[in-house]
Design brief:
four-stranded antiparallel beta sheet, 2 domains, 18 strands, Methylamine Dehydrogenase, Chain H, mainly beta
Length: 223
């Protein structure tokens, strides 16, 4: 099975590596392979002192504009569960509380084909940055409202949302005013309703790792 490559989201466009830890966000210089990191020192270690809401880093993602998006997590202080970003131009860390982002830890990121950033959360489902604002999708849209395990953009422009207990939710028209959400569960043939991750092979077939095993759904083909 030949898979379409998925970019390692802790390696940025300059070749630097961003390593999330529960002692801060560690930024390493460019190296040829991940194994070389043990022989070099970090460029920086970002913590609360640098503006992070928590030293616990849950997820990191680089968008197409070069911003480094950071999901922080704090088991003791709810204020430490936040979405932030590191601005490459200024080297500073910024919050997003004022645009309606939930006070929750981001658990997954992906960009749609229009460059909008989709964010999955630990408890709060999924939302989207579009046209300078953040949109949340309520349950009556069909969007998941709990833990989002993974977000994946396929070659047809659809986003796949892997969830803890609702199977996978396919988003059509992800860049549109009203994207549509279609849940696919064990009722539809999934091996398990906990979906760990989604990917796509070079033939455009969608593969999923579920609690019941790895599967390739469905016939007729989804593309």
């Amino acid at each position: 099975m030949e898979m379409r490559e998925r970019a390692p989201r802790v390696r940025d466009r300059t070749g630097e590596w961003w390593v999330p830890t529960f002692s801060g966000l560690v930024r390493f210089p460019r190296v040829a392979s991940l194994s070389e990191l043990e022989r070099v020192g970090p460029v920086a270690v970002y913590t609360r002192r640098d503006g992070l809401r928590s030293d616990g880093i849950f997820r990191v993602f680089e968008d197409s504009g070069g911003l480094i998006w950071i999901g922080t997590m704090d088991y003791e202080d709810p204020a430490g569960n936040a979405l932030q970003h590191w601005d490459r131009a200024t080297g500073t860390i910024h919050d997003h509380d004022d645009v309606g982002v939930p006070a929750d830890s981001p658990s997954a990121f992906v960009e749609d084909r229009a460059g909008n950033l989709w964010v999955g959360f630990f408890r709060s489902g999924v939302g989207r940055f579009r046209d300078g604002s953040f949109e949340r999708f309520p349950e009556n849209t069909g969007a998941p409202t709990g833990y989002v395990e993974d977000l994946f953009l396929d070659g047809a422009g659809r986003i796949w949302i892997a969830t803890l207990d609702r199977g996978v939710v396919r988003v059509d028209g992800a860049e549109s005013d009203r994207p549509t959400f279609t849940a696919i569960t064990t009722v539809d043939g999934l091996a398990g309703d906990y979906v760990r991750c989604v990917t796509e092979d070079r033939s455009g077939r969608i593969w999923m790792a579920t609690s019941g095993g790895v599967i390739r759904p469905f016939q007729p083909p989804l593309r």
